[in-house]
């Protein structure tokens, strides 16, 4: 039996149907609001508004849990890989062994970018912002693959797999541009995350191949941050994509949305603060003493997440991976940094 909610405007009453989300929570279908009442809804930031019904990912703000396609992210981190999780998010189900093999081959096959695109990197300043470079390069893919998404599927080519393959190469080349080193091309023999690290840190005189532990940690981190419900970037893709803009233009817009100081950019300030603390000769409590007076202000934006009432399980897993990473690397100062980072976590 259908359920309705009644809204009264003056002397008139109007009924609007209640609908259930994929998590079972109820919502009001307001699509007939203006037509029936002449009114519009006002909800800055979409804090009370869902623009779509989606089964891709779901977060529980009370428990801090996050799910992809019904699977707990913490379980995927332990038992999946980034490529397998990407398949799950894109196609809605975990791949069979053959499907995963075919998908991995697609990512290897499409990992190279057109040689003409290499020239685009020459137009950026050496210290250009990584997101500026990434956004432009992703948009430029539209020039090399102009066919529409559906048309590409008819040809047996999935643009989403193509973009996933190439964005890793673009990101690695962007880093090489910043540090002033020659580009390193991907190798088909390397798995997805291994290939990214290989392109980042190899130099002509010496190849870099990460240890199994470092490769595992990167896989797990990328699984954690693969999707996060109706966030700003996802919303931007939906809005731009609704105009029938191609996939590359839509994703480029999401990259730019991520840039803002209230979204991905806020983590930059948090990371900068953490790095400053780690490099400081002071203990962590001594470092924070300067924020007790009026001389300096602590901008804590970037610590925690406003979407959660409880501590995010994603943050808990990421913290464990962070400490695991510092235990694995062989830096002389890694132990000191590890101890300081634990103190920071307790104080924040």
TrEMBL record:
Pfam families named in the record: Citrate_synt (PF00285)
Name listed for the protein in its UniProt record: citrate synthase (unknown stereospecificity)
Species of provenance: Leptospira weilii str. Ecochallenge
Pathway connected to this protein: Carbohydrate metabolism; tricarboxylic acid cycle; isocitrate from oxaloacetate: step 1/2
GO molecular function: citrate synthase activity
Enzyme Commission code: 2.3.3.16
GO BP annotations, alphabetical order: tricarboxylic acid cycle
